[in-house]
Structure formats: structure tokens, C-alpha cells
Amino acid sequence: MKIKASELILNPDGSVYHLNLKPEHVAETIIFVGDQDRVNKVSKHFDTIEFKTQKREFKTHTGTFRGKRISVISTGIGPDNIDIVLNELDALFNIDLINRKPKKDLTSLNIIRIGTSGALQKNIPVDSFVMSYGGLDTSGMLHAYQTNDISHSDYEDAFIKHTKWNTNRARPLLIKCSKILELQFNDSFLHTGITLTAGGFYGPQGRVLRLSLQDDGLNNRIDSFDYKGIKITNLEMETSAIYGLSKLLGHEAVSLNAIIANRATGDFSKNPSKTIEKLITYTLNKITA
User: In this protein, which residues make up the domain named Nucleoside phosphorylase (predicted)?
Assistant: First the structure.
């Protein structure tokens, strides 16, 4: 069936609507960053840069590093932006944009997120790195799709019970990272665990300014949750959306976070830019190892 113009929106030049990209502009190995300014911090390490574009918060550089073609794309903040980025990237590779039909032979992308986050556990110090073994979605965005094949109900049920999860909220979904990329980034100095993905920065992450929280004890119960020795390590706004959509679309994904704050101890990195730069160089070296 032909996909309608209202569903797959293209720019006049044939590029996908939000990302402003054509298929030839993107590599099959893609680094996601949230901040558009971080794109340059990654691509400055490239040996060559063949393509650059930006539309809104979505900035893309494609080039080579040690002979490997890589794209780096800024996603902006939040699960809603990830929904745009991953669906449009998949369309570039797996939909015939001229005939508006899915291709028979599908391409699986390798997606590595380089993000920043705050740790929830005291044993994860600032300036360390976390690889998300799984992403726990609390935003509800993934419930727009059929998720039966990607959720892990035993974990989710235990989390709901322990945290006394309000049933008026979206049911949490746990999605695990790519096994292939997990093995590629399996270094002993990395902290691993579950990353909780929230749909906002303030109330959804338990921050209080002028508005009262629906459940002001929720963060404490999240921090203390332990399922078979696996704790929630950190809190941010993208990982579970990346994992969920990647699983559903057949892509490999892993999320790496530079810990620039520890909410359990109240510490904040004295030089977050240096920590992020270390994570960028580590990631590029692992991709090309």
C-alpha cells in the first residue's frame, strides 16, 4: 500500500520533513546527541566531513573516522523528538521515498546515543559513564505502538508494585539494549543498569519549583527499587524511546551517558565538558575498533 503524503511528509527537494535528509546523506552507523552544539564536538574528530545540514534542533554531520562512515545527529530533548528522528531515519533506509512503499529488503542501523544524565545511586560518581542495560519508559509515548514483543512484564510488574505506581499514569515499559552493541561496549569501568526515561525535566523527574508533585515520595521509591540485583542507575529523557523504537523497527541501539550529577549525593561535575569529551572519544574509538 502506498503511504499517503500526509503520513510521510517530504520537503520539495525530496528530503524527509524534519531532518532535512535524503538517503545518501546518512551512514548506517549513527551517533545520537541531544544538544545540537555537541554535533560539532563529535564531528571535529572526523577525518573528513562530506555533508552538513540543520533544520530546527535537528543537526546532522556525516563523515569518516578511521575509514568508517559515521553520521552524528542531534535529536533535541525528549521522547517526542526521538519519535520523529527514528521514524524519519528508518524511512530514509527502509521506504522507497519515490514510490512511497516499504522496501522488501530492510536495513538495520547501528545507533549509539552519547548523552548526559544524573545518577540515582551513590556508588555512581560524577564524571563516570553509564551504559544502559535497559531503558524503563514512563513517558507513555511508546504506547502509541504495539509493544507486546518488546516489553518485559515481570520487571515492569515488580516496579509498579514497589513504587506504588499511579494507575492514571502510563504503564512503565522496560526495553533492553542491543545485545550486539552491549558486547561491543562491554568494558569493566562502565556502570550498567536501568535508565529511567521521563517525559519531562521538572515534575516528571521529581523536581519541585512552584508546582507540587502528584507523588512526592516516588523518587525515593524509584531509587530503592532493586530487581534481582539490578537497580535504576540514572534518569533522563531519551533512552527508552530509542530502545523501544529501534527494537520495533529492527535496529540496534545502545545508550551511553556521561554522569554529570549525582542526585543521591548532591554532587555536580566540576568540568562536565571534559567528561563529555572523554565519552565522545571513547565511543568513536569503540565504533572503529
Answer: 30-266
